[in-house]
Amino acid sequence: NAGVTQTPKFRILKIGQSMTLQCTQDMNHNYMYWYRQDPGMGLKLIYYSVGAGITDKGEVPNGYNVSRSTTEDFPLRLELAAPSQTSVYFCASRLDRGQDTQYFGPGTRLTVL
Amino acid sequence: AQSVTQPDIHITVSEGASLELRCNYSYGATPYLFWYVQSPGQGLQLLLKYFSGDTLVQGIKGFEAEFKRSQSSFNLRKPSVHWSDAAEYFCAVGSKGGNKLTFGTGTQLKVEL
Q1: What is the pLDDT tens value at each position of chain B, 113 positions in all?
Q2: Which of A49, A50, B10, B56 could bridge to A55 as Cys pair (CB 3.0-4.6 Å)?
Q3: Which of B33, B36, B92, B61 shows the shortest CA–CA distance to A104?
Q4: Which chain B residues touch A31 with a CB distance below 8 Å?
Q5: B68 and chain A in contact, CB less than 8 A
Q6: Considering CB atoms only, which of B32, B97, B105 is closest to A42?
Q7: B83 Cβ neighbours under 8 A, 6+ residues apart
């Protein structure tokens, strides 16, 4: 199993550009999450999904969108990139409600200039 | 609201010395507690978790943590640190079956040879 994979590893965007961060898991986990990690801060939850077709907002959803068309994939979309979105983004997955351990991907480092 | 405090931003220890990383939490119900480790450029890896039962939990890489309800603490320990333990360590709290994991701001561990 590859676990949770994320692409790209690094990206530089200009203000106003858009992009999609990809996240795929091959563990057949129902729950998936997007976090952002800013320097000196803990991880903040952006969006999460409890299954295909079901998504919900986390603590810091503004400026982002998600979709979950399959169990495996949970892409994160930035429509109009802003410098405040410069961060490291982590995707995570969890089997289901009865299993509380989240498994994390390696992260995407995004810089918006 | 749930919260996690990791009072030590940076800790430096000599290889072979013992280690204790502090974590205090605030949570209204029975907490689910986690310690994750993040090596440079990597995602978060679960070290150990506490849900219920024995308050001293063993994890991977020789780490252990003790849950003390009276002190709202979940400190991470290791008897003898190895140079490869240099990384950032995050404490997190959540609820059973819940989707919100609240992370502390992390403790950066440096190991001197």
Answers
A1: 789 999 999 999 999 999 999 999 998 778 899 999 998 878 899 999 998 888 999 999 999 999 999 999 999 999 999 999 999 999 999 877 677 789 999 999 999 99
A2: A49
A3: B36
A4: 99
A5: no
A6: B105
A7: B15, B111, B113
